[in-house]
Amino acid sequence: MRASAKIFWILGVFFLIVAVAYGFVTGRYEPMGIEPVGFPALLALAGLGFMIAMVLTLTIRHNELNSSDDSDAEIAPNAGVQGSFSPYSWAPLWAAIGAALCFLGVAAGWWIFAFGIMFAIFGILSWVLEFSVGQHQH
Q: Which family does the entry's similarity section mention (predicted)?
């Protein structure tokens, strides 16, 4: 986890430097001033990198070392249950179709967005409730 924190600190600094340089160049050479989309987007990327790095750094301080932090560690200490997944589940497909239609609807037409919302709600509810009904019921 220490390596991940270092990577995100580096990414945050990199995007901050790029944002300042981009703002300076567009402010100097563009006739309308600083470009209103790219500069805030780069600042947001820098902020996101710093936020993730801070969370990882604080997590490292409160938890013991992970086996990924030890160069002599084996894979076995991290073995175990990684989650509970339903085999043959169609719910992720419906949720993905809903998300794709929502993104397409924003670009092409709001009526497509409405169909995307319907597919997404069906997919997400199916995904959340799939262990409450059917053959995988508890």
A: Belongs to the cytochrome c oxidase bacterial subunit CtaF family.
